[in-house]
Amino acid sequence: MPLVLMKAAKVIGTFAILPLIVDAADGKVPVVAAGGLVDKRTVRAAFDLGAEGVYAGTAFLATEESPLAENIKQDMLKYDADDLLMFRAPNSFYRSLPGELPEKLLEMDKQGKSAAEIWAAAGDYNCLLYGMHDGDLSLGIASFGLGISSIHSIDPVSVVVDRLNSGVIA
Q1: CA nearest neighbour of 43 among 24, 57, 56
Q2: Which stretches of the chain score pLDDT less than 70?
Q3: Which contiguous run of DSSP H or E holds residue 163?
Q4: Is 160 exposed, middle or buried (0-12, 13-18, 19+ CB in 10 A)?
Q5: Total-model pTM
Q6: Of 3, 24, 115, 149, which sits with the fewest C-beta atoms within 10 Å of its C-beta?
């Protein structure tokens, strides 16, 4: 029986879907958890639910070494998951910090525009370059995961790695 991870912009969170994926994989393939993994508790929870590895995206965006624009790094510390604007894109969705373009894309989504129309208005993947790298949310988006709520500082990568590993090493 196939798993449906997303249907009509409905999203199932990592810790709700992970046990279902582990059960469906039935040991045939390794399961790597992603989404909301930012500290030792979330990493430990992913392994407790059967994951064999983790992928931490937002946690590493909040590092000194990250190529994010400095204004975006500082803005990500001001927002939490409830503040992110979510809109559809072909085969996916994006969550972005608020800004001129993200608000326009959210409005298009609410108006029932197609994912292709929304993504075209975003400027395709260039919107990530303009928003995250250049720091311009009038031309781009700054996409983060729900783990943003647990990020309160911009740290060196080594600190983030130690923080995540502390959930694995008892």
Answers
A1: 56
A2: 1-10, 170
A3: helix 157-165
A4: buried
A5: 0.85
A6: 3
